[in-house]
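Batch 3, record 17
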Amino acid sequence: MNCRAEVLEVSVEGRQVEEAMLAVLHTVLLHRSTGKFHYKKEGTYSIGTVGTQDVDCDFIDFAYVRVSSEELDRALRKAVGEFKDALRSSGSDGMGQISLEFYQKKKSRWPFSDECIPWELWTIKVNVVNLANEQERQICREKVGEKLCEKIINIVEVMNRHEYLPKMPTQSEVDNVFDTSLKDVQPYLYKISYQITDSLGTSVTTTMRRLIKDTLAL
Amino acid sequence: MLPYAMDTDLSSQDRKDLDKFIKFFALKTVQVIVQARLGEKICTRSSSSPTGSDWFNLAIKDIPEVTHEAKKALAGQLPAVGRSMCVEISLKTSEGDSMELEIWCLEMNEKCDKEIKVSYTVYNRLSLLLKSLLAITRVTPAYRLSRKQGHEYVILYRIYFGEVQLSGLGEGFQTVRVGTVGTPVGTITLSCAYRINLAFMSTRQFERTPPIMGIIIDHFVDRPYPSSSPMHPCNYRAGEDNGAVYPSVEDSQEVCTTSFSTSPPSQCVFTVTKTHFQTPPPVVTDTLKVPVMGLAFSHQLSSSRLSYQPAALGVGSADMGYPVLFAGGLNAAHPHQLLGPGKEGGVPPVPSQPAHGTQADQERMCTPLDGVHYSAATPSSSEDTETVSNSSEGKCGSPHDLLETIFIRKVGAFVNKPINQVTMANLDIPFAMFAPKNVELEDNDPMVNPPDSPETESPLQGSLHSEGSSGSSTGNTHDDFVMIDFKPAFSKDDILPMDLGTFYREFQNPPQLSSLSIDIGAQSMAEDLDSLPEKLAVHEKNVKEFDAFVETLQ
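Prediction for the assembled complex:
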């Protein structure tokens, strides 16, 4: 199947990287999370409720909405934190990208391990800029805020196309489509990875895999 | 495709479901938009077990007044071709200038998607669209303006149904499409047109500027269009026009108790289970008064606060330090929301007669401003009570916090003051809202410095004349009068040396009015009747005056 791929680019100051990434990732996951499924007999199921909350950014004139799930927030913060650290330690160039991939698991017969088939890939290309003085920083706050508003509109536009989404699974299949490890919400199975481009222009791949259910091995 | 042909393809159950989905989608859309312009951060909790009360599997609170306004605008209809539901967001300054900021439109066009499954796909796509709306409402320029509303300006909303009116947005307005959902009867489109020409009102202007000297009127009865609905402030509970108690009990039951289960499309048929559905009892809306002492005390708080407002209004120049109360239609169906005051313990019982304020004020109640307590729950339903407790979060988790929150909001109009500025001791003080919470505000608080001219007009009159009184300043009589010492209202002074508590106790049981006293009125019934013709004659003579007076009240 073809994987839908979207690329977003942002230029931010170093201290804005975290918030900008979280804003984009949370907005995508807001649309790609449902309430917890509760299967009943006869194959019917009911869906839990997804709460939302506003998040204000400290370094950007921007606010976004995220799913009310501390576990999900922690997982994203961890990933983004590693990305930010990698960016910082890579050198002065400060270019990299972070990817959020939604996938489905396809069970294979023994001795083959399960396949992970991506169906949507979001890539955020980041360019870290260095600013000289406070006035520039203030302008950057506003500019990045405006840019993020545009990104949110782009994301919503893509979501609204109602393109391929995995079929709602039966109870036995639910773990192949959704991440059921969280206690309050149920996002589609996803993984986050990132790449840092060093100053020579070659990409040094550092992949960080999410530790749930995607490392099933033989 | 002829319109009526659509119905034959859609089963009646599907049609009913679809209409219901569209109706509640429209209501939830309005809630999301208005809540996003309240000026505060919204926070709702996720719940892994389905409560059956959250439409579209999203925790979106229902502010009763907003639902009421939306239903009033829809008047039983659904968005259809040429009939869109619009939510207009505008800004109004304390001087009375107003400007339309955004129009959110929920439209329906003729493009049908026959193949789509109503109960499943349409529902889920509507849920996705609401999530998109949540995201987009934070992204338009009005969001930042609404977060900064307060002394200088307020954000108002207006809901209307019919043709979209974009002329008020100025030149070069931009449009953003939130999303579309195809249904067998048409395609639902949600979009926003927003003003970009905020030339005379940049967001910077409202950042960290000192409060301007002016009156913020808390009753907005703007009627920009002759046939349109009145504007409502986003962070006031609108109810000033009729003091009605909103019949949210009936609606809440409808929303809360519809649960459904879905199944994977490849397997069982989707069923809308009505196991929890109760027929909403007929609700007599204008007699929904809950005779609970604790509740009534809240009335007292709010109504007496209203009555003191004209003192500030009449002065005309008072700084915005005075606490502005959110008088509005309280949803009396939620007594458990307001049992907080009773539980606090320190609250004195309600006096039998209001010390201040008119009778109409008594029927107004204060609804909490924070978004999290607007769960549509009824006292009788334990399931719904769960919803209340489950769905509140953060600082709003208990009635105790609730009351605290009310006080927070009262300190200065629309502006969120930090909790530490409100002490819990204040909750026990009657008329505590007159005691300024902020030292810097009280110097300019007209409550602290009682105006020389006694204001005996009905508070309603003062507050209803938003346009009139906002402009008519009666002079800066209090610019010279700067209080340095902390002096709560009715505190020690030369004329009436007593503290607040003593004052309250003393005035809690005022003596009977002489005209109402049976003893003094030695007049017999006959004498009364005799004097009637004379009185009537006098009144008839002055009928013009009375008419003028009544005019001014409207």
